[in-house]
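Predicting structure from sequence has reshaped protein science. With that in mind, we have picked out one protein's residues alongside their backbone shape tokens:
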Amino acid sequence: MKIFKKYSPQHIARYVKAFFKGRLYIEGRGAYLFDYGKVVMLEQYRTSKHRQTVAEINRCIENFNHHDAA
């Protein structure tokens, strides 16, 4: 499990894209699971803050994917 002390969506997205599957924890935001290169929410953490974080990181991952394809 990787622990991020600071929330930086692009930095976290790079980590998720590189390792593809695993778990991570963001201080102040909680625990997350990533699978197939996308962040997914854990069942016990279904809050709007978690949804926003997941959406933002996944958007960064998509931007990296589109940038790599170009």
